[in-house]
Design a protein that fits this description.
heterodimer; A: D-Maltodextrin-Binding Protein, domain 2; D-Maltodextrin-Binding Protein, domain 2; 9 helices; about 30% strand; elongated; B: about 375 residues; alpha+beta; BirA Bifunctional Protein, domain 2; Rossmann fold; 9-stranded mixed β-sheet; 4-stranded mixed β-sheet; 12 helices; about 25% strand; transferase (chain A)
Chain lengths: ~210, ~375
């Protein structure tokens, strides 16, 4: 039985394939997968899903391993082994607002795709805020007056800049991580240990 | 009409299998001299949330009583039984229970368990009894593809003691170990590089007897750790001698319930990875009643186990075709098929449903049976 790895679609997927190739694994079927959501190589099965769904597939043991951003793990707290950081997908979580605008004197309203991370960030600061959950284009919220600020991931900062926002505070640096199903890691240890070991070596190369 | 998320109606085989799993559990535990105990479904939240039990109120199904107390649906058996056993005579050492627990953080709100508790019993005897009851029950259920994992809370306690972390940092370290998150384990313990190294190595310390042998040598100069690893080895050998093919140790496992203190064990089904039982030592739970006793137990996940059973196929299905006049006679014929599923019908609609169809016919005022 081949190990099943769930990959986060999009940018992380491409970075993973590059990383995987650098570890001398066969990535040809992954590159030429077209629109397929399940791909098999000589050694592995891969499934492609949104980040949060990657954690669900791993938690339920459909996938043995998963590659997912730590933002997703921090937000959704899935019951999985959170094994190791990978040398890609580096981002920061930041609180940002409209350039030149002061915080209001009342309770602040913060828009975010990450309500739990946002709640925890302000709880640690000892501040009560109202959180508006958005699914995307969070940068719009302060501009259109829906919120006073946003909590979102920042990679280069270009999106914020182009939308007239500035970072007020950065508070969480993270990367992609390798997660594992709690039972699979034990039951399929002989199959999974070499893969995890190679990911660790890849991490050292960084 | 709709059902709340996590609730479900159930029919047929699923229920038959579950009853069978419960029946066999009762048989096994009765024959091993366990006494049954049951506690109420509704309890005060404090029984489970006090500092000794330490369970999270957020995951419980709860409401306020008229007096303003928080009441919950039983979220855990062991804690409830500890409360109940305080009033029992200590001469009874072995207890068994079966019934539901209710937790909102699980896929289904209600899950069914059957379990045992062994109290006032020497450490090795109590733990062996639990593990061998598990082996015997799984054998009775004809489940043979499983793996038993052993761990011990004392390893983490012993290695982290010199770090002198405050409660919050220690809990963070425990969670990082629970998640096998090496980078964070190292970071939290990094003030002491040697211990940080040992803890991160421990994250990968799961495997078979090779791991036990390695750590037996590795910890030869630490009396406490040596004692623990030799205790685990003794239990693992017991299981091996009892025919358990796959015994796994995870020396990096930390307690997932606050009241565990000592050996922890867990059974995994190999084909789907489901945890079919879990348990361990929890002497500390009794400290809330000012009692210092030995207590160990485990609970089977009856839902997981009964999914592996298929009992209806084991029975031959027989249809007796009768009529209003011959129904009483047909009922007497039923007696001769004591180990079969027997259904009396007046008309046969679907013969594929049955392995055998017999008809009652009347000759000269006498009934006789004809096989069709």
């Amino acid at each position: 039985m081949k190990p099943c790895i769930a990959l986060t679609k999009g940018r992380l997927e491409n970075q993973f394939i590059e990383f995987f190739q650098s570890l001398s694994y066969d990535v040809e079927p992954l590159i030429n997968k077209g629109r397929k959501l399940r791909v098999e190589t000589d050694e592995f099965q891969f499934v492609f899903a949104k980040g949060v769904d990657v954690t669900t597939y791993v938690e339920h043991g459909i996938a043995d391993l998963g590659i997912v951003g730590e933002d997703i793990l921090a937000e959704f707290q899935p019951d999985v082994y959170n094994l190791l950081p990978l040398p890609f997908g580096n981002c920061r979580m930041a609180l940002a607002t409209e350039k030149g605008k002061d915080w209001p004197a009342r309770k602040r309203r913060i828009a975010s795709k990450y309500p739990n991370i946002t709640k925890e960030f302000f709880r640690k600061k000892g501040e009560s805020v109202d959180i508006v959950k958005l699914e995307g284009s969070v940068e719009l919220a302060p501009i259109l007056g829906l919120a006073d600020g946003i909590v979102d991931i920042v990679e280069t900062g270009n999106t914020l800049k182009e939308n007239g926002l500035v970072v007020k505070e950065e508070f969480f640096e993270f990367s992609a991580r390798c997660i594992a199903n709690r039972s699979s890691l034990k039951i399929k240890r002989d199959l999974l240990a070499p893969v995890i070991k190679s990911f660790q070596k890849g991490e050292v190369v960084r | 009409m709709f059902l709340p998320a996590g609730s479900q109606d159930e029919i047929g085989n699923r229920l038959n299998n579950r009853s069978r799993a419960y029946e066999l559990f009762r048989k096994i535990t009765f024959n091993r001299n366990y006494k049954q105990i049951s506690t109420p479904v509704v309890e005060y939240a404090n029984t489970f949330t006090n500092k000794h039990a330490g369970m999270d109120l957020r995951n419980m199904l709860k409401w306020f009583s008229k007096e303003g107390e928080i009441e919950v649906l039983r979220p855990d058996w062991t804690t409830a039984i500890a409360r109940a056993l305080v009033n029992q005579h200590p001469s009874q050492l072995k207890w068994s229970y079966q019934g539901s627990v209710f937790r909102s953080d699980k896929d289904g709100i209600e899950s069914r368990q059957a379990g045992i508790e062994v109290v006032h019993t020497p450490t090795f005897l109590g733990e062996s009894e639990c593990l061998l009851t598990a082996v015997s029950y799984l054998k009775e259920l004809q489940i043979d593809s499983y793996l038993i994992e052993l761990g011990h809370t004392g390893i983490f306690d012993e290695l982290t003691a010199p770090l002198q972390l405050d409660e919050i940092e220690l809990e963070k370290l425990r969670i990082a170990m629970h998640d096998k998150r090496k980078d964070e384990v190292y970071q939290i313990a990094s003030d002491n590089k040697e211990i940080a190294g040992q803890l991160t190595e421990l994250v990968d310390a799961f495997g078979s007897f090779d791991i036990i042998e390695y750590y037996e040598k590795h910890w030869k100069d630490n009396d406490r750790l040596l004692e623990i690893i030799q205790h685990i080895k003794q239990l693992a050998s017991l299981l091996k001698e009892s025919g358990v093919e796959d015994v796994l140790v995870d020396l990096g496992r930390v307690k997932n319930l606050p009241y565990y203190c000592g050996t922890m064990f867990r059974g995994f089904l190999k084909d789907n990875g489901a945890t079919c039982f879990s348990g361990g030592r929890y002497d500390k739970l009794y400290e809330q009643f000012n009692e210092r006793i030995s207590a160990v137990g485990l609970a089977f996940d009856v839902d997981v186990l009964s999914e592996k059973l298929d009992i209806t196929d084991q029975y031959e299905k027989i249809c007796i075709l009768a009529s209003e006049e011959s129904h009483v006679y047909a009922e007497t014929i039923r007696q001769s098929y004591s180990n079969c599923i027997v259904d009396i019908k007046y008309e046969l609609v679907n013969s594929d449903e049955f392995d055998k169809v017999i008809q009652i016919v009347k000759d000269d005022n006498n009934y006789r049976v004809v096989e069709k």
